[in-house]
Structure formats: C-alpha cells, structure tokens
Amino acid sequence: MNIYLRNIDPNDYVWIWECRNDEHTRMNSIHTDSISLEDHMSWMKSSSKNPNRKIMIGCYLEDNVGVIRFDIINEDTALISINLSPGHRGKGYSVPILKSLEDIIKQEYRKVKILQAVVKQGNIASIKAFIRANYVKVKEDATIITLEKYI
Ligand SMILES: CC(C)(COP(=O)(O)OP(=O)(O)OC[C@H]1O[C@@H](n2cnc3c(N)ncnc32)[C@H](O)[C@@H]1OP(=O)(O)O)[C@@H](O)C(=O)NCCC(=O)NCCS
Predict the structure, then answer these.
(1) Ligand 1 atom, smallest distance to 84 CA
(2) Class of domain 3-150
(3) How does pLDDT run across 96-110, given as a tens digit for each residue?
(4) Do the bridges between strand 77-84 and strand 114-120 make them parallel or antiparallel, or are there none, so unpaired?
(5) Model confidence pTM above 0.85
C-alpha cells in the first residue's frame, strides 16, 4: 500500500484539530473533551518545539489520511497515538502508518526500544490495528489496555 509519512507545518494545524475533535475520535479517546482551536494552536506550537514529541501526517497518494504522533516518555519508551480522519477509517491504513513510524523511530531515535500504545477498552479497531502491527497486550484494567512492541 502506497502509504508514507510527512512532516507537518502550521498549515496542517487546523486539519489536525478537526481530526482530534471528531466525535468518534473523542468517544474512543482517553480524554473525551472537545478542544478549542485556541488551546489546540498553543499545544501545536509548544509541540513543535518539544524534542520528545513528533507529529506526522500519514498520506495515501496525495491525500492526508491521518495523524500519528509519538512522545518519548522515558529513555527507551515512546508512546504512540494514531488518529485517522473520519473518511479514511476501516480501510487498513493504520498498520502501514504504524510501521512507517516504527521505521523512522528505528532510524532516527535509536535509544527508543519500546513502543507503547494506551487504548480505551472497547476500541476494537484500534486494538486490532496495534495487534496486527505486532504489539502485544501487557496490561489491562477496566478502562484501558496497554500494548507494547519491542523494536
Ligand atoms: C483506530 C484506528 C487507528 C484503526 O485504523 P483503521 O485503519 O481504521 O483500522 P483497520 O481498517 O486497519 O482495521 C483494523 C481492524 O479492526 C477492524 N475494525 C475496523 N473498524 C471496526 C469497528 N468499528 N468495529 C469492529 N472492528 C473494526 C477491522 O476489520 C480490522 O480487523 P482485522 O485486523 O481483523 O482485519 C482508526 O479507526 C481511527 O483513527 N479511529 C479513531 C481514533 C482512534 O480510535 N484512535 C486510536 C486511539 S488509541
């Protein structure tokens, strides 16, 4: 599948905000609140200066398909978050996007050895996508499932 990741620039910030505030996304997120454009813009600005966070856009042909992000949360672990735009879900794009990000981390962030995903219970598509990308469940409680992959 012809999926690739690209770096973002400020022209992408509003589209990323729209994806984040999509109702289905919020329902499946740990934080379900809607975010104001103002708060989002200041979060994007601070994120762009944060060396431990990287946000990229997954593309299929010329189309923006979704947003993928990682946060380095300690020396060897990166927390991965993926959010496809509503029109691009259920088409199998998530796994190639997760794999492309993994390649970038392997090449450019060599200290990172563990990829971690924290998924809300019941978010079947997300759990299946991470498992298909070879993450394994390491922890679970009533609300959250944690999956990890050693790279
Ligand atoms: C979760 C998400 C990343 C999955 O990506 P996707 O490309 O839509 O998923 P896929 O098409 O690869 O489907 C993954 C699997 O889930 C299944 N699936 C998809 N939607 C489903 C649904 N609504 N209910 C049950 N299963 C579903 C698919 O059949 C597929 O199963 P398979 O591996 O057995 O073939 C994407 O749907 C999304 O961005 N959702 C909104 C935000 C979100 O929940 N992000 C994750 C937060 S951790």
Answers:
(1) 39
(2) alpha beta
(3) 999 999 999 999 999
(4) parallel
(5) yes
